[in-house]
Write a structure and sequence with these properties.
By secondary structure, the protein is mostly beta strands. The protein is built from three helices and 15 strands. It has two domains: about 90 residues, no CATH class; about 120 residues, Immunoglobulins (Immunoglobulin-like, Sandwich). A five-stranded antiparallel beta sheet has the order 1-5-4-3-2, with no helix packed on it. Strands 9, 10, 11, 13 and 14 form a five-stranded antiparallel beta sheet that branches.
Length: about 240
């Protein structure tokens, strides 16, 4: 919902629904319209600009208050997304940041060969479930369409034994030779049976408004992990009896 009008509320509420924002707890109320307000030029102009809407207000626990126009069919009681804007319209940056917070980034899996590592032998790793392509989302509000897009910038690996690596590659699935390799010097017995491997992905982010030029946003970081057991090779001596 968008804030479209200034001032303080007249009349009384007729129904309510609860809404939550990024850092606010808010209540949306439908307003009873008095004769004075209904005949005012401001109200008549706003009503004409918002067909299929009902006049209401939003009040938050931090003291914020504003008039809003509520679309017909908005469900009562439940969570409703509220986008707070200035009097001159929708804030595209706020919309972009909201989209960024809910971007559908895949649940990346860490794969390895061999499935159980061996001390002093190289283990190969790669990312599964994501091919590194850009991820995008968009939202269309009255008069404004906002697009956001992220693309992986760097992958920071932690192999669980105190060793880290930084790459721009997702690695290669076996039997191809993966660029992401690590040699363990000790078994994972002391680590509880498996090393906790993580990959931290830094995504470059950007947004645009109404198909215009892209503008940079702060990068976002997402972390993914898995357990990787490593065993010690045991030498077995055999002999032949004469």
């Amino acid at each position: 919902m968008t804030q479209d009008s200034p001032g303080s509320a007249p009349g009384s509420t007729s129904s309510t629904s609860v809404s939550t924002g990024n850092s606010r707890s808010c209540r949306i109320s439908i307003q009873n319209i008095g004769i004075v307000l209904s005949n005012s030029p401001w109200y008549q102009a706003e009503q004409a600009a918002h067909p299929d809407h009902v006049f209401g207000s939003v009040s938050c626990d931090d003291g914020f208050f504003a008039f809003i126009w509520i679309p017909f069919g908005t469900p009562a009681g439940g969570n409703v997304q509220v986008v707070f804007v200035d009097d001159d319209g929708v804030d595209p940056l706020a919309v972009a940041l909201e989209l960024l917070n809910h971007l559908p980034i895949p649940d990346i899996a860490i794969e390895a060969n061999p499935a159980t590592g061996l001390v002093a032998l190289s283990s190969w790793f790669w990312i599964d479930g994501y091919d590194g392509s850009p991820i995008s989302s968009s939202d269309a509000l009255p008069g404004v369409t906002v697009d956001v897009e992220v693309e992986p910038l760097v992958y920071r690996w932690s192999f669980g034994d105190g060793t880290t690596a930084e790459t721009t590659s997702l690695g290669q699935r076996y039997p191809a030779v993966s660029e992401i390799r690590h040699v363990y010097e000790q078994s994972s017995l002391a680590a509880g049976g498996a090393y906790a491997i993580t990959v931290e992905v830094t995504f470059a982010a950007r947004y645009r408004v109404n198909g215009g030029a892209w503008e940079a946003l702060e990068p976002i970081i997402r972390s993914f992990g898995d357990d990787y057991p490593v065993q010690q090779l045991q030498s077995v001596l055999t002999g032949q009896r004469q």
